[in-house]
Design a protein that fits this description.
- The chain contains eight helices and eight strands, in the order E-H-E-H-H-H-E-H-E-E-H-E-E-H-E-H.
- The chain has one domain: Formyl transferase, N-terminal domain (Rossmann fold, 3-Layer(aba) Sandwich).
- The strands form two sheets. It has a six-stranded mixed sheet.
- The chain has about 260 residues and is an alpha/beta fold.
Length: about 260
């Protein structure tokens, strides 16, 4: 393939997370080369569940003490006005709002935008076939886990719990089956014997920004070398429960 004429037009779909996902964009926006143009961004709400359900989920995960500590961090970021939407506005990137990325009305806006690629960064909704088919160069996702072994939610947690020596950050093509598209790039982030989930998620989000830029540059230049996933190695993980957190702590790791 030949190098694309002009900048690569990218639509980003992400979630409204002022604690961790925002670290990706704090590194991503300032490092973008002129050859990559972020045409627009959609910042979706996390989890797509009632606030009470999210609070219960987080309380079960963190436990009372860490729940309060993390809650205070969250409130502090909200009070400060720190958000992905604000970063995008400062970078001159238009915001496209929607209740569902799979709604026909959203698809119409995306087609009018004419992105070459759609990038998912912790997008909270599964992309259906119609959305996946819109950009001519496809949709790509960044996933903080080795694929296909650590498909699903909270891959950093599950890799740390499994005793991996490093967290693998993966950029892959998106297909209808979750986290099963061909791999476009990876990086290894070393783990300490006793580590903090907070530290690792924060650092891998930042490191992942450079990986995504590298992959997008290779897409623009037609130099990607996609690697097929072996379905026989596929695993799937859901959101950790209290028993998983107890095992995590017994291994010597901390959440915060």
């Amino acid at each position: 393939m030949t190098v694309q004429a002009g900048p690569l037009r990218v639509l980003v779909i992400t979630e409204d997370d002022p604690l961790y996902v925002i670290r990706f964009f704090e590194a991503f926006f300032p490092r973008l080369p002129e050859t990559i143009e972020i045409a627009a961004i959609t910042v979706d709400r996390a989890f797509h569940e009632p606030l009470t359900a999210t609070v219960k989920r987080m309380l079960r995960f963190y436990g009372p003490v860490d729940f309060v500590r993390q809650g205070l961090r969250f409130v502090a970021t909200r009070v400060s006005g720190r958000s992905i939407s604000k970063l995008a506005d400062q970078a001159g990137i238009p915001l496209i709002e929607t209740d569902s990325v799979n709604a026909p009305s959203y698809h119409e806006q995306v087609r009018a935008l004419a992105p070459d690629v759609i990038v998912s960064v912790a997008a909270p909704q599964i992309f259906r076939e119609k959305l996946l088919s819109i950009p001519p160069l496809g949709c790509v996702n960044i996933h903080s886990g080795r694929l296909p072994a650590y498909r699903g939610m909270m891959p950093v947690f599950w890799q740390m719990l499994a005793g991996e020596s490093a967290v693998t950050v993966t950029v892959h093509e998106m297909v209808v089956e979750l986290d099963m598209g061909r791999i476009l790039g990876t990086l290894e982030f070393p783990l300490n014997e006793r580590d903090s989930l907070h530290r690792v998620i924060t650092a891998t989000k930042t490191a992942g920004a450079s990986l995504m830029i590298d992959v997008l540059e290779r897409i623009r230049e037609g130099k990607t070398e996609p690697r097929e996933i072996d379905p026989s190695e596929a695993g799937y993980f859901s959101f950790p429960g209290p028993s998983d957190v107890r095992k995590f702590r017994r291994r010597g790791h901390r959440l915060l």
